[in-house]
Amino acid sequence: MTSIPPASRANLRGAVDLSSLVRPPAAPAGAAPGVATTVPSLVLESSDASFTGILDLSQTVPVVVELYVGEPSATLIRAVTGYAGRLVLATVDAAANPQLSQAFHAAAAPTVAAVIGGRPIALYEGDLPEADVKQVLDQLLTLAAQQNVTGTVTPSEPGAEPAEPLEEPLPPHHQEAYEAIAAGDFETAIREYKTAIAQDPRDQLAVAGLAQVSLLARLGTASAAEIRDAAAAGPTDIDAQLAVADLDASGGHLDDAFGRLLQLFPTLDQAGKDRVRTRLLDFFEIAGGDDPRVVAARRRLTGLMY
User: Fold this and answer.
1) Is residue 251 a part of any domain in this protein?
2) Which of 62, 167, 255, 268 could disulfide-pair with 50, CB 3.0 to 4.6 Å?
3) Domain end: 107, 128, 155, which one?
4) Domain extent at residue 264
5) What's the pTM?
6) Secondary element (H or E) of residue 89
7) Contact assessment for residue 243 and residue 231, using Cβ atoms and an 8 Å cutoff
8) Would you give per-residue pLDDT tens digits along the chain (306 residues)?
9) How far is 125 from 1, CA to CA, in rounded Å?
């Protein structure tokens, strides 16, 4: 890996306010050159619930994000800490944090990305030799300098174990939903998000969180192969097509999900059209209204309805 892919428009909405990655600021303010911030460690454990703190930190210093399975990469830790505070590493257990895994499209382990000034940047998948990792990180620092994110951080306790960053408390029902998701109890999470929406219909985070956890609940225990086989065998079976659209959306393949349902839409009776429209609106909430794929799909849906 010798180049940094362009910034992705990752879906980072859900149980916490990650909307700055969906709607990044026009020009991140960054930190004045030489400004240092104290952090618990140069390697921070992060999660779906605490990632807001990583977004804040990325306004000062580039944050490398590793979504791992098993253990974080010792090579990546060694490489990042070798930059003496010019970079921070946020490690995320992919299995325990489904929202960030989906957000960063973590199809391989590890998936390594970065955040600069609240903007997500895809880096690489899998393990790389340390020399290649350093080359990627050098380019990341160059990109950060172009965006005026040139601060540094100092660990409060040099050599201390990686610590989780301070996080803003979630609203009570959001917190209950997050804990339920972590425990695999999607039914409770759905109930908590619905309660939050009933109390405040304008709570867009709860609306997006409900759409996302409902998607996870619908996927259930069926394998991807079973879902795709059923869809192939029943091209006009609305349940099978909705299920495979869920599978596509969960993997970040929104164009496939949208295309499938929009092609099916004109062939359905009114009840079927209502089901497909509702599912598409859920996907729109998950991705965010300003995602170009959502804009195009919404326009096409409107044309089919009228």
Assistant:
1) yes
2) 167
3) 155
4) 172-305
5) 0.49
6) strand 88-93
7) yes
8) 333 443 333 333 332 333 333 333 333 344 444 455 788 889 999 998 888 889 889 999 999 999 998 899 999 999 999 998 999 999 999 888 888 887 887 777 889 999 998 888 888 888 888 888 998 898 888 888 888 888 888 887 655 444 444 455 678 898 888 888 777 788 998 999 999 999 999 888 888 888 888 888 888 777 888 899 999 999 999 999 999 999 888 777 888 999 999 999 999 999 999 999 999 999 998 877 777 888 999 999 999 988
9) 9
Question: Angle at Cα 107 formed by Cα 101 and Cα 207, nearest 5°?
Answer: 35
CA atoms within 13 A on the CB side of 268: 22
Number of neighbouring beta carbons within 10 Å of residue 129: 10
Q: How many domains does the chain have?
A: 2
- Would you say how long the chain is, in residues? 306
149 and 200 inside one domain: no
CATH number of the structural domain spanning residue 180: 1.25.40
Q: Is residue 1 part of a domain?
A: no
Nearest of 54, 52, 61, 55 to residue 31 by alpha carbon: 61
Same domain for 243 and 281, yes or no, is: yes
* Tokens found for residue 167: 């996080």
224: three-class secondary structure by DSSP: helix
> How far apart, in whole angstroms, are the C-alpha atoms of residue 80 and residue 301?
46
Do both 141 and 206 map to the same domain? no
Q: Is 149 exposed, middle or buried (0-12, 13-18, 19+ CB in 10 A)?
A: buried
**Tokens found for residue 227:** 């879902």
